[in-house]
Amino acid sequence: MNRTDPTGRTDRTVDVLVVGAGPAGLALATRAARAGAGRVEVLEREEEPGGAPRHCHHGGFGSPPLPWVTGPAYARRAVAAALDAGAALRTGVTATGWAGPLTLETTSPSGLERITARAVVLATGARERPRSARLVPGTRPAGVFTTGELQRSLHPHGHHPIGRRAVLIGAEPVARHAARTLRRTGTQVVAMLTQHPRATALPGIPLLTRTTVSELHGRGRLTGVAVRHEDGRSGVIACDTVVFTGDWIPEHDLARRGGIALAPGTRGPAVDAAFRTGTPGVFAVGNTLHGIESAATAAAEGAAAATPLLAHLSGTPWPTPGPPLLVQPPWPGPPRPTSRPPRPAPSSSAPPNP
Amino acid sequence: MSVTTRGPLPGGEYDVTVIGAGVVGSAIARELARFPLRTALVEARDDVGDGTSKANTAILHTGFDAVPGSLESRLVREGSGLLAAYAAESGIPVEPLGALLVAWDEDQLGVLPGLAAKARRNGRHDTRIITAEEVRAREPELGPGVLGALEVPGESVICPWTTTLAYATQAVRSGVDLHLNCRVTSITSGPRPAPDDVHTPHTRHALHTRHALHTLHTVRGPLRTRHLVNAAGLHADRIDRLLGHADFTVTPRRGQLIVFDELARGLVRHILLPVPTALGKGVLVTPTVHGKVMLGPTAEDLDDRTATGSTAEGLALLREKGRRILPALLDEEVTAVYAGLRAATASEDYAIRAHPAQRYVTVGGIRSTGLTASMAIAAHVVELLAEGGLPLSGARDPRPVRMPNLGEAFPRPYRDAGMIAADPEYGRIVCHCERVTRGEIRDALAATIPPGSLDGLRRRTRARAGRCQGFHCGAAVRALFESEEPHR
Hints:
The structure holds 2 protein chains of 2 kinds. In chain A, 20% of the residues lie in helices and 27% in strands. Chain A is α/β, with parallel strands linked by helices.
């Protein structure tokens, strides 16, 4: 039933409300809808559903025995599966805050809503820390990117290179993908640097290990990055583009606004082994728990969370919080779902809130 | 009414030209726009408020700590009230949070009574010294070791970007020509009458007929004007020298600032000002009207007037001081780091000088209080121009402007059902961290003074000003900006 209050906000109710139509949220919605969870609605603030894989124009998505596909193909498949299962998918809708423990406020071109659900799932993903959050000093020129912005800026077959000479900060898989993307679109990658002692190099791109970026130079447009090796050597690499890769942080904005306890190590919502947060009825899945993992891993979490979610809908009581599951660097990986239910809590102490 | 960004400047003669479209120059242009004069506002950069004005601590001061009896003290006191009223009329966000000057050691505690006395001499009788317990109750997240504080109730935070843009927008809509990308390289002045003659209407007329003019040679060609105002900020002394004066020198004082994410906003309720002692001024922690928390500034005297970069040492210093003031702040994400240059001079006061014989006024040495004092400085400067013979008759009030709200404490389009119903573009959020809608970006691109860069768009909408710094929205915002560019 829809009602509109005097401020123009419409109230609605659903059974399951999933925030984020990426691999984790879609996988959960698919399972839940297929199992007859009632109205399963997925909110996506972007114009297109599918999440981060939409921007990854390279293979390697999916998991055996399915064929490996490109990111966009993987995203299309995940969207189709959710729709086939009967989930409702709404794009261009942003959850802006909470109006109650299981009630979200939303904004979209069609207006303001207040949606109450029997279960809320946070599947809001992660982002990379930008240059400012890494406290890299220097000027503030144009030409400074994260991988996320780079991927969204470059059409896969576009003819507008984003710069002439780029330096990549980081050498993990996402950085190597960024390097390939840059080269394909006509930008020369002049160096990749990592603070770690070793990493996998790409042919034709110098890899500087044990090296950090110490300053950005340039007014208007970037002209170079100052770098420093841990042995004290330093220098400036001339470039007009720098891409900061990795250093993922969960998108925990909505969780924090809802007073949901975070795991201190990851800054994502603290969950038990059944993806339950400290707030009854609120689940969290995917990369919002732990920064970046593969789409297949995120989807596996979403699918696994469907079981405890269905149990919650059928009246299984929300357990009092057990011992918090602490994840600390180096990340051993996401909390894995277990086949047995979580043990009853030895005490009623809540997980620590950072 | 026009804004030009390239090509030759209009011919003919301007009655008065203001060099520098920062907060002070824009305020002066707005004040001049009240009169039936042909006025130009020329700016070296591609946007208004793109120099010192964009990178300050964004506080609407009471002037409680100015040097009593100084010009700055008077103009800050007058300007504070003028700007508060103008902000309410124009939609410039202001939050009257009040300030606490927190004492962390006996030296600082000992300074507070003197500061309260100074405040009284500056006409502020509402300050009060409060106990450590009261400070702790009002700011529970403060670090250990607080000994007491001076409370200054009238201090507010304001949006510096909207302030400058409102002045300039109102000036342009009232007929002022704004010329951007228009750096002044030299100035030649024509024959001028003897100084003691200029005050009579007769000589004023004679002056015009004898074509006694300043010709500004700019990177976009010449511009001729009868009267001239130098509000060039960091470059005011250079312009002054072009007119034969050398009575002050600008020493750029760099202030580095760290802005923390909106999720830190709950940690602090007041503007936490440092207590100035012989050992230095310290740094402040303040909420911003954009819903974030600011830490800074450093104070480094430099020679280089373009050194707006941050440094590892500066950021480390800020973090060390911030950790003492508000320990939990350091666990929050940083959204922006920047550095601004204040136009400091050797003097403790503003260097506002009239040269009536030259029909020229210098507005120099305007430091961080310039935002607060801007409207009073403008009124003062226009009076000084009149001494040089500028005819000030036929004044009328300019049509009010209403600026888009960037303040977090006020209704924003993404939460306004009426606006979204009338125009769904206000429900289409593009920048997710800051909740900036496509409608707001479209409006900014079509405004009286459109942004010249993505940074200018950020100052008008907050797009890309949030925690992700463009990870999610950067490409979309750039595409919207570039789709408008060819039409400008």
